[in-house]
Amino acid sequence: MEQRPEPIRTSVDLNVEKLLQRFADNEHLVVRNIHKEEGSPLASIVYLSVLIDEKRLNQQIIRKISEDLRLQNGSAEDTIMESIHSLGEIKVLPQIDAAVSMISDAGILIFVEGHSKAYGINLPGYETRSIEEPKLELNVRGPREGFTEDLQKNLGLVYRRLKTSELKSKAYLIGKQSQTSLILLYLENKVDGAVLKELKSRIESINMDVVSDSAEIEEWIQDSTFSPFPQILNTERPDRVVSALNRGKIAIMMDGTPIALITPTTFFELLHPSEDQFERFYFANFMRAIRMITLFISLFGPSLYIALTTFHLEMIPTPLMMTFLSTKAGIPFPSYVEAFLMEIAFEVLRDASLRLPRIAGQSVSIVGALIIGEAAVQSGIVSRPMVIVVAMTGIASFTIPSFNTAIALRMLRFPLMLLAATSGVFGLSMGMFAIILHLCSLRSCGVLFLDPVESASWRNSLKKYFLLPVRYRRISRVKKHE
Amino acid sequence: MIVGSICILTICYGIAGGVRLWKRQSKYDAFLLFLFCGFIAGYFIPGIGNAWPTVENIYSFLYERVAKYMFENVLNIKLEAFR
Amino acid sequence: MTSQEKISNKQFGSLVFSFLSGFSTLFLIEAKLIKQDVWMSYLLGITVSIGMLWLFVYAQKQYPHLSMAEIFDELLGKWFAKLALCLYLVYMLETGGAAYRALSFFYTTAILPNTPNIVLMFLIFLCTAYAVYLGLGTLARSIQVILPFFIVAIVIVSFFIVREIDTNPFLPQFQSRASEIVFGGMVTLAFPFGKAIIFGFILSRVKNVKKIFSSTAIPMALSGLYLLAVTYMVFGSLGFNLSHAATFPYFSAAQLVRFGEYMERIEIFVISIWTVFTLFEIIVIQYIFMLVAGHVFRIKETRFFVFPICLLFFAIAHKSFIRMMDLSLYILGIYPISSLLPIVIIPVLIAFLTLVKKPRGAKKSVKINPVG
């Protein structure tokens, strides 16, 4: 049901009454009246005491207004208006609804007798975390600042690094109840207009009551809902946002979360940490090559081992095969059962060490890894090579900086193991092909997800995948695929 | 077992897809899909499946004499296929 | 599914190459028959199939805004066009079924002797159905991902096989009768190269119609070269008798590969990449089948038919060529004749009709250079 917007009246009392109705049963709504003499108030200040900085309100705003009133030389209302305008950034609100959202958004509201408008000033007084080193994306080299839950602070971190008027922003209020502010940031001269338009329309289509984290926004605006792969990069590092903006990407920042979203993202960007750009390029490229190998291991490690030991023993060099066979002797399970057992044990340990408090978590992972692994081998339930393979796979998946991508790879490992157990290398190649097809079909805001590989020339792809020295690094921009 | 489950799967898909298409007002497509799935399911029904037409059967029947004549009399090649 | 996504000429070329090169090296039937003179058969087969595809390209260039199925309608009239397209549908079923069987036979004979055929075929079905569902654009992009790996793998294997070759196996030349070479040419035309004719149906989906002939003919020629190189390596490393006795000669030759004293039998890795490569043939056939069937039966929502169409291929493959021998006899005996109609006769007819019925508004003397 569409409601007609309610205008603000000229009478302060009426307006305050309206607000009191709206905020009925709210213990924290404070109304402070400013009188010149006895009788109806000249002006009223309304706010939620839990949200705003009351000390500042008292010391700056109320004191200023009272002093001005004492020294007044025109009408009382005009004096109040003058003092309000001297306070800094004020918002003129013509309707009750806007006034209500102003109060909810850590603002104070001033009604002045005889004025059919309300004046709002943001005066946030709640506590936020101070800027700390990012918790998830650790770097050896590079800036140490990370985003916090406060949008203003986060925006400051980005604006400080990009001192150009090309940096544009567009603000949205998302969530019918939560009214969370969300900001799109992009560089006008770099961004692809089609992508921006697409993203804007997707954000406008968001229909939720309460938004509590950018993860929900990510889910809503991504291209393929049912893909195991994340299609939007999330980061808590301002430097990463800045370098992404410089490549023509769009950053989405939301109040109340330290995670910014970057879109359009390609698969290979999810595999590289931001640190690559600050390392010497030989080392950075070496690590990029290594990460391709770990990607392969974390996806195919156990399934390849199952396929080889179950179906293609002749492929393994003879001495190695003898070692495998001797360790397998006396183990009651076939390879795939062993692998399933160990993989599930590994996932359980990983999850347990995440959920427990830091200190206990560490001991769980050590106890799990050492004792369970060793005990399983000693008692002859699993073979030693299997423990090595599973551990190697797990560690390989941790080298992938994007947590969601690593999870996707770990999940895909299970169907691949099943395929390898039923039809060996054949099943594996089917699985591999299906994954490649899936990745090729994905898009991120219309941009191809496997971008560098699929771009027109292979030379170009290599250039995009590997880093050149900073001096020769040309910025490659993302383009929407028609 | 695989054959049986594929057969049931095909019929289920035919019915489900047909109903969905019917609801979208494309009745011709729905009918065609249903017919098509029924035909395919025939291949997997034990007994009937072997009598269902395959390209191999039809073309072997149609072209065997032509091929034999072509290869043996025109090109003078003896093939094991025609022994 | 993005049904009308256009693909670039390079992607189209890669698709043609992978389509032809997957299965061509599997049996080497014609090479077993004609031995060292097989290159002439290859040349014959490739020339004719490039020529036939050129005829389709010619027709497509006259009607750049129509798909090939619509061109059939335009030239042959509604019912004759339906008949001709149905012949293509049957041809695709024939080829697709044979490809399904060939791949599963290869695995059950050479690598996974204990796995039932139907399990492998069912996996092929699942994978290809998913690919067809995703559409042509995705397919074209995924070939770009896989092709470099395939080339690298083949080059490595070839390098190690070439070390085994001592003398030129193609000498002495001209030991076969002309009729044998013609027969080999027919087999080559039917089995690896003529299949490319079905690409005629997606010519309208390529971005640059002007360069379309070169982006078709060059990969076909390259695929022929690849086949010839493989034949050379197989004969060189195994000799004629062993090649004739082996069911999968190239696979047997690849088994000779070893790195030093330690790494042996690395062919499985190559085969796993090759398997993915061969799937492209099945996928492309099923995809084009879907397009043509959609046109013939006037299906509006082809998306719903992806699964049943792929299932039809699976069913046909499941019921035909029960034994390996059936397949090779069919490919030698019936296939070269049965495929003449869609590969040669209909394209000639279409080109002739295009020439006679010049489309309205087309320039009078559209001369197209057959070389490119």
UniProtKB/TrEMBL annotation, chain A:
Keyword tags: Membrane, Transmembrane, Transmembrane helix
InterPro entries per the UniProt record, alphabetical:
Spore_Ger, UPF0353/GerABKA_families
Q: Which Pfam families does the annotation name?
A: GerA (PF03323)
Q: Which GO terms describe its cellular component?
A: membrane
Transmembrane ranges, per UniProt, are 289-311, 361-381, 387-409, 416-439
Q: Which GO terms describe its biological process?
A: spore germination
Query: What domain of life?
Result: Bacteria
Q: Which family does it belong to?
A: Belongs to the GerABKA family.
Q: What is this protein called?
A: Spore germination protein
Give the species.
Answer: Cohnella luojiensis
UniProtKB/TrEMBL annotation, chain B:
User: Keywords in UniProt for this one?
Assistant: Membrane, Transmembrane, Transmembrane helix
Q: Domain of life of the organism in this record?
A: Bacteria
Transmembrane ranges, per UniProt, are 30-52
Q: What is this protein called?
A: Uncharacterized protein
TrEMBL record, chain C:
Write out the annotated subcellular location.
Answer: Membrane
A single GO CC term for this protein reads:
membrane
Q: Which PANTHER family match?
A: SPORE GERMINATION PROTEIN A2
One protein family per Pfam: Spore_permease
Lineage, broadest ranks: Bacteria, Bacillati, Bacillota, Bacilli, Bacillales
| This protein's record includes keyword Nucleotide-binding | no
What family classification does the UniProt entry report for this protein?
A: Belongs to the amino acid-polyamine-organocation (APC) superfamily. Spore germination protein (SGP) (TC 2.A.3.9) family.
Annotated membrane-spanning segments are 12-33, 39-58, 79-98, 118-136, 143-161, 181-203, 224-248, 268-292, 304-322, 334-356
Q: Which NCBIfam families match?
A: 2A0309
UniProt membrane topology term = Multi-pass membrane protein
Highest taxon above the source species: Bacteria
- Name the keywords, alphabetized: Germination, Membrane, Transmembrane, Transmembrane helix, Transport
What GO biological process terms does the UniProt entry carry, in alphabetical order?
spore germination
Give the protein's recorded name.
Uncharacterized protein
